[in-house]
Amino acid sequence: MEDNVLTDGTGAGGEKSLVSDENRNSAEDYCRTLTAGLSDFRGRLAATRAEKECARFLRDEAGGVATTRLEAFKASPLAGRTASALMAVAYFLALVVFFVSFAGDRAAGIGLTALALGVLAAGMTVTGGVFLGARRLCAVLPGRVAYNVFSESFPSRKQEKGKILVVAATHSSAPGSYFANFAAVRKAVFVAVPVSLALFVLMCILKMVLGTETVATVVVFAIFPFIFAAAGIAALALHFSFSPRHARENNDAGVAAALCTYRYFIAHPELLPENTRVCFACFGAEYAAHAGSRSFAAAHPEIAGGRAIVFGDITSEAFRFVRKDALRDKVFSRTAVTSAERASARCGIRCDAVPADDGIKSKLNALHGYAAEALAGAGCDVFMLTAKDYSSEGTAAQSAPVDLAVKAYEFAVNAMAKTAEGDNGDKE
User: How far is CA 256 from the centre of its chain?
Assistant: First the structure.
């Protein structure tokens, strides 16, 4: 099976791609124009002005195809990845309490050191939950208005149960780091923070056991815990940046591919089961604990029983589909393998499954979850498409966004269209 689209439109399985040369050329022109327009909105972090302006731009783009609107919701810039800064604050407070413990007698010192450990445990539990996107914890954070872009071929009141195809992407940017090599920072944090926490806890325990009656023990239990904690606090504080100028612009190709796919199925409804309602959704604030996709799923209960394709990061030619969240043990699709095999046979674009085993690597890749989670939780069968090698981020050469968008669009069309027999939902 070849990695790229075969020049005659025939896949490795001998089938013809549903996307003709004319469709492909038209999509290339459209993606080039659209990605150029998206490049005007840099630094689209959650609920920022740039993100909102981008949402309006996409509303106008999709509005030329079908009825389109913006759907407002609240999102907190502190939720999700950037909550690492809150974890740094919790760690700092525990360090402050630890140093206060030197002021009293032995009993007070033991009590305050134990309190420092309690502050650390409670603070990391709460802020760690926000970091991982826990809904109840994120809900108490101060929020700002963000927008999802929503377009539909016809209103939900005319939709038959389960006859819906949602084509989705996210127009928000992922928060970056203060340093250029984000992949290196990510690896350093995963090592530095656990080691820092383990050593700080060990020093707290030793302090309670040995006491600080001598100058030597005071020096040891003051300097070393400070060094260990400072390393962890710095790693957490510098992991993600709140500045739009550090944002990682990783979604232009995915948005372009999603809009192309939506436009294609609007123009070719015969390739879907009869009377299928086709919708386009572009999520805002998705990197703020998936606020956009969660808001969309809550606002559109009619997606239950339907199908969706969600375009994740499209930044390389390593096309993959996410069938399951390995960390949370949630299955997104029962038809993904069949759909991927069918698309590859038709257009010759290879697409492998993201590993979803019990290994540490699989769980780290799923640390922040996926946009597919909310839609799957609402009862939708979701094909989550990505084209990014998370294990080597920042090291591989990346293709032009236009080329990636066209390939993702062609693969999506061939994956989501019904088979020759008219069945669009083969179960695995």
Answer: 17
Q: CA-to-CA distance for 303 and 361, rounded, in angstroms?
A: 32
- Confirm if 249 and 171 have CB atoms less than 8 A apart: no
C-alpha distances out from residue 386 to 39, 219, 251, Å? 20, 52, 10
CB-CB neighbours of 357 under 10 Å: 10
Residue with the two structure tokens 């791609």 = 17
Ramachandran bin of 43, using left for φ above 0, alpha for ψ from -120 to 50, beta for the remaining angles: left
Cα radius of gyration (the chain): 24
**Residue among 278, 281, 283, 319 at smallest CA distance from 403:** 319
Q: Which burial class, exposed, middle or buried, applies to 223 when counting CB atoms under 10 A from its CB (0-12, 13-18, 19+)? A: exposed
C-alpha–C-alpha distance, residues 282 and 260, integer Å: 13
The 3-state DSSP class for residue 416 equals helix
Angle between helices 336-347 and 401-416 (to 10 degrees): 120
pLDDT in tens, 91-109: 999 999 999 999 989 999 9
Residue 80 is classified by DSSP as G
Tokens of 79: 């939720």
Contact (CB, 8 A) for 113 and 101: yes
Look at residues 208, 382, 157, 407 and name the one whose alpha carbon lies nearest to residue 290.
382
pLDDT single digits (tens) 195-218? 999 999 999 999 999 999 899 999
Q: Are 408 and 314 in contact (CB under 8 A)?
A: yes
3-state secondary structure of 67: strand
> What is the pLDDT, as a whole number, of residue 10?
53
Amino acid at 166: V
